[in-house]
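Subject: Protein entry, chain in single-letter code together with its fold tokens

Category: Structural biology, sequence-to-fold work with a learned token vocabulary.

Notation: Tokens come from a learned vocabulary of local backbone shapes, not from coordinates.

Start of record: The labelled sequence and token lines come straight after this line.
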Amino acid sequence: MKPFKHRKKRIILLSFTFAVIGFGLWFSGSNLYKFSKGFFANKTDAATMQVVEVTKPSKEETDEELYSSRPKMGEEIGELYIPKLNATLPIYHGTNEDELEKGVGHFAGSVLPGENDNSVLSGHRDTVFRKLGEVGEGDVLIVRTSAGEFTYKVNKVRIVDENDRTVIVPKPSETLTVSTCYPFEFIGSAPERYVLVAYLASKTVS
């Protein structure tokens, strides 16, 4: 009987030993996988952060200062040259009647010509923009200011209601929007606007 009892104890002891070893191997393998996964995830995150930090442009690189100071209302800021009409028109800061009587008005709520956004110019259809209807897609508009010369190419012509505010909305790139009353032959206060939307094609900075 004693040999049988000893054999039984040995079997139980061996079974317990194998169970402990098996559990230990399983536990080690499971934690090793989690550790490896977390380690490589952290390495990937660190690499991604490094890429973002290296490739992200600084404010100085994306925001070029063209003008050292902002113009005052009524101040002449440059000229608009329209090759199609062989016309050179003075541009004044502001779109009140005082500015529009003298030439083309620059909407004060928009950026200055050449800056990154939508620069808006307006003029009367019976004075400076009498022949603006002859200008259309593909034609060139050149603005000269103290900051340099900016050449825009018209890529869209729009006819909008006089109260349409989309004419002055911000743009993602250098844009020149030129508008005047429409129809050109209309007698009295015209109900619409003739709008040229042009994008910067080239520039020469002073």
Summary: The radius of gyration is 36 Å.
